[in-house]
Amino acid sequence: RVAGQRMQQIFSALPDEWKQFPLNELKFEPDQFIKPSNFVIRTHNKKDSGARLLTNEDEGEGAVLVFVAMQGDPNGSLPADNKSLKYLLPDGYSATVLLGHEMFFRKMFVEGLKKITNSEEIKFEMVMSPDGKKIEKIIGLSGSRVRAVPESIVVGGIEYSVQSTFADIHVKNSSKDDVFEMHLEGGRNPYILWREIGLDTHLHTPSGAGVYTRWELLYNLFLKVTEGTLALDCIAEKSEVGVHNYTSSIPESHRESLANAMSSWMTTLFNEGMSDFVQPLKNINIFTLNSLLFRGENAVKLEDVHYPTDLAVFGHVGPTQTAFSITQLEPVIGQGEKLQFTTEPVLPNLTWKVENILGETVPVGSITSAGLYTAPTGAQLKGKFARVRVTASQGGHTSSALVTVMSRGIT
Known about the structure:
By secondary structure, the chain is an alpha+beta fold. It is built from six helices and 27 strands.
């Protein structure tokens, strides 16, 4: 006791850098817009939450929950007990990442809109569902994007000058027409709708009449997981860029060429804009959420994503360590007995071996290529029991079990 008190005094007097070691560190890129600020860790018992235990699971099965508040966002409240929260790990997965739909939707839209309009000041309106629990759509109210275009186009020997040398996407509210909308349709994937009444960039004809474009575009955005990371596909469902207000001074034979030129300018502008729009999502370092508990970029491998309201991404913890696991981790068997080892999930072509644990030199028995283990006989055992290690391996992944072989039966 006296020695312990003395050691405690010495330890307490040490500087913090000698006493405190980080379990992990929050790291993120400067331009990353989802940045953790505060977090709380607790456990969640599977049975107490009302979830069904699998055949090989005991009553202690559960999950570690990490509640994360992002920079600029307030802290939330935790469930009072296990029953107050649904179990968040579906069968077959060992990791789930949830992002609140309002935070995700707002961040994805606003940051994407900034990329489109090259502006930090974006005005928008969020339209909530009648019950006020989720966002139904976001309407862009201001902003624009421009792209340089040729100063003129020659068709049939006639030069048509471009009144403005910039194509322009307007993101504004004009005459109560919402020209930029982002919807959550069908409960899974959002989509974007652009509508434009007129365009400042138009052709200037020799007679002085202007020719301008009108458009209506619909882009579907599909969330997906690619090579373990969250991504967003942007697919043009509808793309109508029309040229209007022709005058009699423009020959019919010229109009198709003029329309194709202007449509090409606008289509390029839209494609560039949408490419920038999805960029913020690609830059999300989803592993930042995991780094609270696990080190390394290989901490969690994402495999599937759903967006019913909140964003839910499912995967596996430490895939290089948990590609498979031996089901019987600490079996106890009698001398000379056989035990068939299995893995979860069941995999073919595993390599099985049995060996001494560190510091032991006892007979280990044998194991077949199919994982059937035969314990050493009583005559081979030197004491009342022996412990050996059985290992399954495949493609750099391994899982081991500690086997205890008894020389006599247990009564």
